[in-house]
Write a structure and sequence with these properties.
Distance between the termini: 43 Å
Oligomer: single chain
Number of domains: 1
Order of helices and strands: HHHHHHHHHHHHHHHHHHH
Largest sheet: none
Helix content: over 70%
Bound molecules: phenylalanine
Number of helices: 19
Strand content: under 5%
Shape: globular
Structural class: mainly alpha
Number of strands: 0
Amino acid sequence: MDATPTTSTRGSWNSKIGFILAAAGSAVGLGNIWKFPFEVADGGGGAFVLIYLVCCFLLCFPVMVTEIAIGRRAHKNAVGAFEALGYRNWRFVGLLGVTSGVLILSFYNVVAAWALGYFVELAGGHFSIGSEFGTFITDVVKIGLYAALFMVLTAGIVSGGISSGIERASKLLMPTLLVIILGLVLYGLTLPHAAEGLRFYLIPDFSEVTLEVVYNALGQAFFSLSLGMGALITYGSYLSKRENIIESAALITLTDVGIAFTAGLLMFPLVAFLNAGDMTDVQGGAGLIFVTLPGAFESMGPGLGAFVGATFFLLLSFAALTSTVSLLEVPTSFVIDEFNVPRRRAAIGIAVLVFLIGIPSLLSNGASPFFTNFVTYFGSDTPNTFMDLVEHLSSDTFLPLGGFLIVVFAAYVWKTENLSEELAQGAPGFRGSALERFIHVCVAYVCPVLLGIIFVLTVLNRFFGVSVF
Ligand code: PHE
């Protein structure tokens, strides 16, 4: 069963590069520049990087291809897509995706607000902000205002529609981001002790690798590539039949991995510079950027430090913005398609709702003891904040689960034959190629098996404190 998509005024990308930049913009975000480097620091440096690369290319790339193909074939939002293909019962996968999008955006926007706040503080030469991070994030009014501003910017872009909102913003922000990050890396490499930083980053230390590192690498890969929640089903639904999906997905994956890798090249020389080459106890976690880096900027001297520091947090804010846009587009497109609500009204309404849902996250970094020590999982005695809980549930649990369900759907319900047919459009040599066989094997066997196993182990480990191995 397969419905023929109707032509509609849903909007579409104006150009191939527009789609790629928008999807890469969705992928490149806080995940690359804020999270990736500290996951590397916690996971044995280069060893984590290697495991991460395997996850991206072997497990995530096939999921990305599948999501885009489903979206383009169905020409519908993440929920409606399953129904348009003829499988109403599978709408729950899309609903899981829309829920994940709303939850992720609710806390992601708070971290984006920190980044925007740091841009303002460092532009004013306020370097001690690093040591005041704990107080800064409890200033609910200030962070609330930055968060509201960030949400307004996001909703403004999404309201503009696909080509004149999202595509236009991505075409402006992504090249700027690239120039800024490359400029900062080149500068960072000229600093004293850069080599020690690079050594820590690039030489694998396999003694630090545990199964938990593998779970983190997979979760991080899903989050960073914006997979498992239908963001790419949605973006794919605006894509023309002339475009080559595999080629586009390869470019998106390479850009995302490339920028995460480059962010490490930027971060570790700065940390080594600050610690005079001593990388023995690099602090991971949220603090790597928000606590450690301002010190490095301060050591550059007031004028230069303020400039480099502000530029860095501007980069982080831009990266976050193209991601919040895609996070908001998923529920927006769902509401537009399914309930016939005009785009502007849908985008603004959901943005307000998500902002409200984000308030407990905003309060959970010290301002409210209740939300700060919100929940303790089985088998552990350290409480997690509300924001941690939302993050663990949405990005670490729902995304890999969504990815697993999407490949199972594509392989065993929609069938690989239909997937191939869609992928062949815009890719003349695809049928019968080795690439086609690779995608089939991954989508039907490698991804479901490995994603399924890792998903169960992650949930047992994270929420129940059970380590099977
Ligand atoms: N990929 C984004 C990042 O790395 C986050 C994101 C996740 C965006 C899921 C959309 C969907 O920051």
